[in-house]
Amino acid sequence: MPELHFCDGGPLTAQYLLVVDSLNFCFWPDAELQYEHLAGGVKCLQGPRCISAARLAEIDGPGVQQLLGWHRELPEQDERARLLREVGAGLLQHFQGQAAELVTAAGQSAVALVQLLTAHFPGFRDHSIYKGRQVFFYKRAQIFVGDVYGAFAGKGLGCFHDVDQLTMFADYRVPVVLRLMGLLQYSPELQQQVEGMQELASGSEAEIELRAASIVAVELLKDAANAQLLQPPQLLSIQLDWWLWHEGERMRAQHPPHHRTMTIYY
User: Fold this and answer.
1) pLDDT digits (tens, 9 = 90+) for 74-113
2) How big is the CA angle at 78 (ends 77 and 81), to the nearest 5 degrees?
3) 120, 90 Cβ separation under 8 angstroms
4) 147 catalytically annotated
């Protein structure tokens, strides 16, 4: 994991990552707030009690602000507190208060871990209805699995025999990079809305299509890259996502605007 993150190679790392990924959404309403403030803020806390399930189960909005060390109210601050309380209560009820127990319960299956997260923590149930059909993205659930995999280098708690089943993490940063690469093309209406920094409604057809198209584009990119590799290991969708996201972060000042959606899912 990058130096930005806490990583001690043990159970506390899983606890840290679950807290971070419970809060990993919708930074854009505060122009100064970025992912690194979330990851770095939680990392700087003193002692494991700061992110214990018992403390999370009782946290309020100002407590979340204190957790991150942010100097003003966070976007969706009360919702972030509610989600952390949900995580704390769920860990206490089902997993002895430990995210590591949650990971272990999945039996080294990335898919099973996503299922456990969405079964016990409703805030991770990232889904929409598209033309009468339910569509599941599970961005934050998948990114937790990917973060555990990355933090433990695919070993120990991070060993998943089916990590290749994870998709990219459908957010608002990666589509910008995919569009600049020519892998996504916006309709004139969507382009006007995104570049005009108008909010794209959560659950709207355009928002769902943009997220779904991003997943398909990364799958096609992965398949094309892997076709050029003569031997394993082959690229994973989550590895491509990591690269695309970091590229988007690195060049965000030069890139065109990303789409803006108020949501707890990304």
Assistant:
1) 999 999 999 999 999 999 999 999 999 999 999 999 999 9
2) 90
3) yes
4) no
**In the chain, domain spans:** 1-123
Cα gap 37→28, rounded to integer Å: 13
Scanning the structure block, which residue is given the tokens 């016990």? 120
In whole angstroms, give the CA distance from residue 125 to residue 175.
21
Cβ–Cβ under 8 Å, residues 21 and 147: yes
Q: What is the Cα–Cα distance from 237 to 256, expressed in whole angstroms?
A: 24
Q: How far apart are CA 261 and CA 75, in angstroms?
A: 12
Residue 202 has pLDDT above 90, yes or no: yes
DSSP reduced 3-state for 127: strand
pLDDT, the chain, mean: 94
pLDDT band (50, 70, 90) for residue 53: very high
pLDDT at residue 71, rounded to an integer:
85
Please tell me the predicted confidence (pLDDT) of residue 49. Answer: 77
Active-site position among 21, 126, 171, 241 = 171
Answer for the pair 114, 141: CB distance below 8 angstroms, yes or no.
yes
Amino acid identity, position 143: I
Question: What is d(CA 163, CA 144) in angstroms, rounded to the nearest whole number?
Answer: 12
* Radius of gyration, CA atoms only, the chain: 18
Residue 254, token pair as written in the block: 């030069």
